[in-house]
Amino acid sequence: MKCQKQLVGAIKVTKLQQTKATEISILVYPHLLITSLTLPIEMLRAGEAFAKSHHQSQQFCPLNINLVASNLAPIPNRTGLAIIPDCETVTAPTSDLIIVPGIWRNPRPVVNKQKKLVQWLKDSWQQGSHIIGVGTGNCLVAEAGLLDGHPATTHWHYAEQFKRDYPKVQLKPDFFITQSERMYTVASLNALADVIVHIISQYYGREAAQHVERNFSHEIRKPYEDQRYLEGAVDKHPDELIAQIQFWLKNNLTSELSLQEIAAQFNLSYRTFTRRFRQATSQTPIEYWQQLRVQTAKELLASSNLSIQEVALEVGYNDQGHLTRVFKKVLSQTPSEYRTVVRRKLFG
């Protein structure tokens, strides 16, 4: 038995010159948080639509999204909307990405009744799937043993219960996002949105991700890389001198010193400074400093009444034009356009 959407996906592939679809599966079960089901679907489809209209057909990779359950019976939920699975675990396609939605209230009763889904998660992981666990949905991932020895997060209300039920997991309750190899865990819907934007950037590029971010939630976001707990992350690097320089850069955005002069302040040649900085952070010093300035400018544009020129000076750019050029390069919009969108969403 094949799921219906798989056949639809096959038709799409033919129209797009046999471009292979990306297989995405979302687990469904009783008492799931339906927003954690619908939000990623809508965001992924928005990214797909943008990419389709901006890519040549041979470069475009469509998405084949299926709802996977232990059986094909409709699943009732608190909203009164019936969820109709597309596939059972035994017929589901091999998945590139699996999303495990959150669970309403105590997750234990749901987890205890979903042995098939737990086993399917374990099998899919071994086949190379990426997995995103949402809130208490991470209990299903932990039940499969996939989080043992790795960092994870969950909904704050069930953090202590999670610790007791899964003592081998390195719970990080102060983080809304963790990443370990192909595994993402998130503690909230906002964090889920951030990870989906990150996934879209991997599938379709930065421009598509920024388009989705602008239309869904970017006014309250920090970049995905800034908020996650990444197992073995380079931002946890052991180079103490580079960490000191990073701290100095964060607190001296308006400094007129060149990076060569900053390196000399820390008794490093510019060549050595650049090499060590890249080794520690996977970024050049210029990229890192620009990222800091853009993020600070975004926060000022959203939360202050400073003029664009004043914001530029606050983050170390000599004039409004310089800030505008950087914004257009990094965010594909001007500071004024960013402020208009963010203010409309925050205060409209």
Topology:
Layout: H1 4-15, E1 22-27, H2 35-54, E2 63-69, E3 87-88, E4 97-100, H3 108-112, H4 115-126, E5 130-134, H5 138-143, E6 151-152, H6 159-165, E7 170-171, E8 177-180, E9 183-186, H7 189-204, H8 206-216, H9 224-227, E10 228-230, H10 240-250, H11 259-265, H12 270-281, H13 285-303, H14 308-314, H15 320-331, H16 335-347
Parallel strand pairs: 1-2, 1-4, 2-3, 4-5, 5-9, 6-7, 8-10
Antiparallel strand pairs: 8-9
Helix pairs in contact: 2-7, 2-8, 7-8, 13-16, 14-15
Question: Explain this structure to me?
Answer:
The chain is an alpha/beta fold and 348 residues long. Helix content is 50%, strand content 11%. The protein has 16 helices and 10 strands. It has helices at 4-15, 35-54, 108-112, 115-126, 138-143, 159-165, 189-204, 206-216, 224-227, 240-250, 259-265, 270-281, 285-303, 308-314, 320-331, 335-347; strands at residues 22-27, 63-69, 87-88, 97-100, 130-134, 151-152, 170-171, 177-180, 183-186, 228-230. An 8-stranded mixed beta sheet has the order 3-2-1-4-5-9-8-10, with helices on both faces. A two-stranded parallel ribbon has the order 6-7. Helix 2 packs parallel to helix 7 (189-204) and helix 13 packs across helix 16 (335-347). The radius of gyration is 22 Å and the shape is globular. The N and C termini lie far apart (50 Å).
